[in-house]
Each structure stands twice: as C-alpha cells, then as structure tokens.
Amino acid sequence: MGDSLFEGLPPPSHQQQNQEAEANDTSKTTKREPSTVPAPPKPALKSALKRPKPVEAKPDPEDGAAEKATASGKRLRFKTTTDASETQVIEAMKKIASHIKTPAKFSKASKLAIQLIQAGSVKPGTSDHFFAILEAAMSSTTSCTDPSVRADYHCLFSAARDAAECLNKKQKNQLATWTVRAVLANDFFTDDSFLFSKTAGQVKDAIADLPVATKDDDIEEAASLIDKAATTDEYSKREDTCSGAEAEENKDVSDPFGLDALIPSTVKKDEKVKGKKDMPVKVREEEEEESKRFLKYQREALITCLEIAARRYKIPWCQTVIDILVKHAFDNVARFTSCQRDAIQKLWASIREQQTRRKQGKSVNGKLDVNGFEWLQQKYAGEKISIRHSVGGSGDRRASQWLG
Fold it and tell me: What PANTHER family is this protein classified in (predicted)?
C-alpha cells in the first residue's frame, strides 16, 4: 500500500488543471510585482430607483438658444426680478394713494408702499408722489389710532422715516408731525412697560424742544376754532371776480387803444427790479409761516399723546410713568397755547386726584385696594360654619381664629 492521500481517486479534469495553472501564474506575478494594485471589486447591483436617469432627448434644432445652452451644459435661467422705471413707480404710487384712503384697503396699500420704500424706489423724482401717499393715508376717515389700522399706520410711518432724505423741508416737517401721531401715540397702547417708558421719554423731549407760545399763537388758535371756511371761500371768490372786473375796467380807461403793450416803459422795469428785491422778504415770510404751522401741528400731536397716555392710568404699572409725563407737561405749560394749557391743567388736576386716592389706599375706580388675604377675610367673615363638623385638624375652630 502506498502512502499517497490521492490513491484510488480519479485523475483531475482538464478544467481543474487550467484553474490551478492560472492560480500559480497569479501568485508568481504578485511576488514579482508587489506594488501592483488588485482589481476593484465589481459594483453591486443598484435598484431601479437609484439608477441614473436616462439621457434626455436633445431639443429642437430650430431653437438655437436652447441648443447652445444644453450643448454647453448650462441650465436655462429666467430673470425673476425687473428694475421698474420711474414712470412705472409713479403709476404704482398713484394707485396706492387712491386706494389707501379706504379703510378696508389700507392694510394692503400700506404694505405695498413699504415695499417701495425698501426697494429704494423713493427718489427725488418720485418723492412728491410718495408724499401724496402719506397725505392720503392721514386724510382717511379712520383715525391712525384706531385699533383696526393701528399696527399698519405704525409700520408705514416707521418705514417712511427712512425715505425722509428725499423730501423737502416742508414735507419733512409734516412727516415729523404725522410720525408723532402714528408712531408715538400708538406706542402708548403697548403692553411692554419698557416701550411705554421709552415713548414717554420721547414725548417729554419733544415738549422740552417746543418754544414758548406767544400771543400771536393764541390769536391764531382762537381764529382756527371758528369755522369760517365756507364764508371765507365765497368772499375770496367774490373779491377775485370783482378785482378782475375792476382791473379790466381800469385797463380800458387807462389804455383804450392797447398801446402800452407796444411801448417799452421804464415803469415796468422798475416793477421787475422791485419784485426781485422783494423775493428774499417773501421767502422769509414763507419760512416763518411754515415754522408756525409746524409748531401748531406739533403741539396738537403732543396733546393727543398725553390724552392717550392718561387713558391708561387704570393699569398699575403705567401710573408712575404717566405721573412723571403729565407733571413734565404741566411744568412746561407755557410752551402750549391757551386752550391747550387749559387741557393740560385739567389733566394734571385729574392725575393729582388719583394720586391722592392711591395714597389713601383707594384705587382708580374708587374701591379700596385689598390683597388676597383681606378679600378672603371679608368673604368668610359672614359665613356660617356648623359646630357639628370638624373645621380644624382636632375639631376646633381654628379657621375662625385664623380669619380673625
């Protein structure tokens, strides 16, 4: 018997011999070339969802631009924003001004106006039309402090301050007055104590910046209280028609043949020179009138702020701030006109009366200020407790003793 392990087995097949020969060749090559990287494994089969998308068909060759874009490997991009021209901006502002007067459309129109401000569309060429939007907003039948539009007014005029650089001096003064009404006055309705105190400080600074009122201011205020608009308009129209008729009659009498227009006269030259000299005087008068008008509206707006703040005196955390604010207005009462001085004095008298009630332990509504313990004491003082049931831990009347 032989010692071979393969004794009695059939001879190896031809295919097995070839595989052994290939294995010997690869082992030799790996020994000779150790730096050779082995072949990467075959990639695993992917599902149909993870397979790459099929190649899209090429676009129509008639579309040259699309063919070039796809050939270069770039996507087609469309312009989503356009720069509006000044004419388009003006047309948009006119539409907004026509709709912003309506209370139901005010919210949407004010948001469109804010978008124009944020986009930088308010420029010197469009500033007059933008000011017309603000003017239409303040001429609405609904007050800017109305709860339905209060927040929209606040947002609109807060954003309008960013575009004040494009306005002229008269428009800036008017915007400052509207800002007091639409922003500061509405800030007094807040539930934030910090914002309430900050707004009161701004109103105090605005009052301190006012000049002392003069007798002319009192006279103008008294005249403005009397409504004579219709009579004044009719009188001015009659005066204009009469003056025009008188001018025509005088012209016919002085120059019946119309020769003065053909003859150069030195009188007309003198009138032109005199008109040029009077120009600085007219400009100065216009500036004075504008400053008076601005002060008048500024005082009225600050009085509105004081009245709104005083209405919130029932809230405990507002009381100290209102006390300081109204006291400051009373100390500077000379900066207001006569009717406004009377209103401030009455307001200060009301605040002092409420301060006295608070010191006596009474609240604003006249009732005594009591805490929770005192309220429970008053409630259970007249209650009847049965002696047959245990009240305390050991059956005694500790509750009655505790309540006094």
Answer: F7O18.3 PROTEIN
